[in-house]
Amino acid sequence: MHAIRVRCRLFARYAEVTGEEVVEVEVPAPATVADAVAALRGRLAEGHRLPARPLVARNRAHALFTDPLADGDELALLPPLAGG
Amino acid sequence: MSVTHAVRGPLELEQLIARVSAPDRGATASFLGTVRAGPDDGPVIRIEYSAYEEMLDEEFGRITADAVARWPGVAITAQHRLGTVPLGEASIAIAVAAPHRAAALDACRFVIEEAKRRLPVWKREILADGSTAWRDNEGGRVPGRGPAPTGPST
Question: E-strand spans in chain B?
Fold first, then answer.
């Protein structure tokens, strides 16, 4: 069983509460967005401040928690949106 | 084609309108969203916008493609301002041109609604007492942790 490396990005309030903007996580394959979010929350000291099911984007497009991940994917945790 | 939709500095709606204007497009609709302080907002002195900029460009592109698919023949351009935006200045500008007014108006409304729903943009209020708060489009307001940054207000 190999591991999938995911580059996680945190923005705005999520970056503020965790003190991190980019975090690399590894999850066993096969993995979904949900697996990487759980790994990220567990890895960061302030990870519990992140919601268990935040809005997410995979490779710069909105994604679902059930979406599969591939090695090298970029996963972004998006705080509630405020554009416009 | 990669298009940069993020702008640091005042938005120029006239420039956007010029980009979509064409002799065969008889209707142009535009939208300008400006930073405001509501009656319950307290002493907000300015707003800071930040974004996942790579995705912002791609998502604007997807929104535009969705609009063109629904209203064939429309031409659309839009920009979102990032960084510090003083009250009363525009944070988003959209220009849509079409052969006829119904498509221009409908597509413009579509783009701003989808932009608010889909763009990875965040807004932090800076209050007069130096505190900060994160605002979102669902009415959420969460106090910020850090002090308000010092620096130019524009």
Answer: 6-7, 27-34, 44-51, 75-81, 83-86, 90-98, 121-127, 132-135, 141-143
Q: Is the pLDDT of residue A13 over 90?
A: yes
pLDDT in tens, B98-124: 999 999 999 999 999 999 999 999 999
B55/A60 Cβ within 8 A: yes
Are B96 and B104 in contact by the 8 Å Cβ rule? The answer is: yes
pTM of the entire predicted model: 0.92
Question: Are the beta carbons of B52 and A62 separated by less than 8 Å?
Answer: no
Q: What pLDDT shows up at residue B152?
A: 41
- Residue B147: the pLDDT is 58
What does the pLDDT average to over A30-43? Answer: 98
Residues of A in contact with B49 (CB under 8 A): 82-83
Which CATH code for domain A3-78?
3.10.20.30
Contacts of B46 (CB under 8 A, 6+ apart): B35, B84, B85, B86, B87, B126, B153
Domain coordinates of chain A in residue numbers? Answer: 3-78
Sheet with B121-127, side-by-side order of all strands: B83-86, B44-51, B121-127, B132-135, B141-143
- CB atoms inside a 10 Å sphere around CB A11: 20
B42: tokens are 């307290």
pLDDT tens-place string over residues B125-142: 988 888 999 999 998 989
CATH for the stretch B6-143: 3.90.1170.40
